[in-house]
Amino acid sequence: MSGDTPEDVASLPADLIAAVHVCDGLAVPPGEVPDQPGSRNVWIGGGLIPLQEWVDACRSTGFDGYYCPEIFSRKIAQLDDTTVAATLRNTIAFLLA
């Protein structure tokens, strides 16, 4: 959702949410077009998005489904898959705790 706020999400009926994709991002300079490898080239929790606020907004709707981490970092893609998956799982669990 682009341009929406956590308050907008919190006002949605839970049955409208199929899954929540959790991804962080970096600032995009004014006038530039955001691109995945640039603006999202960061570990979840290492960017500028207030993830806890957004997760809390989703949870406040009563949604109790899937939270899917997304990483668009080429550097992270070079790491051990098992380690990355375990760390992402722990990151999402922390946000949901």
UniProtKB/TrEMBL annotation:
Check the record and name the Pfam families matching this protein: AP_endonuc_2
Membrane-spanning ranges: none
Looking at the record, the residues that make up the Xylose isomerase-like TIM barrel domain are 11-80
Superkingdom to which the source organism belongs = Bacteria
Name the keywords, alphabetized.
Answer: Carbohydrate metabolism
Is Transferase there in the keyword field? no
- This protein's name: Xylose isomerase-like TIM barrel domain-containing protein
Organism field: Agromyces tropicus
